[in-house]
Request: fold
Amino acid sequence: MSHKKKAEFAKGCPLHVTIRLRQGLPSLRRKDTYAVLREAFAKVKDRFVFRLVHYSVMGNHVHAIVEADDQRALTRGMTGLLVRMGGCATRLPMS
Reply:
């Protein structure tokens, strides 16, 4: 993954984000996993100046459409989303 600076974006401009899962983990589309992910998404849906507009859960990754007022809001919103996803995932069985 490249860590070079991303292009600037306009406030409220929708952005496509892909969140990939580490190999060897259970499918995100399992009923129990999906329910936990929905809980995480609901918590960050409309927080401050970051909005989770839409998401699509695949077996090993998630596509999300997000909006943010600026780069800082995008960074903080995505960090919050990933932390919540990780926290929810710790409650799942590894089988």
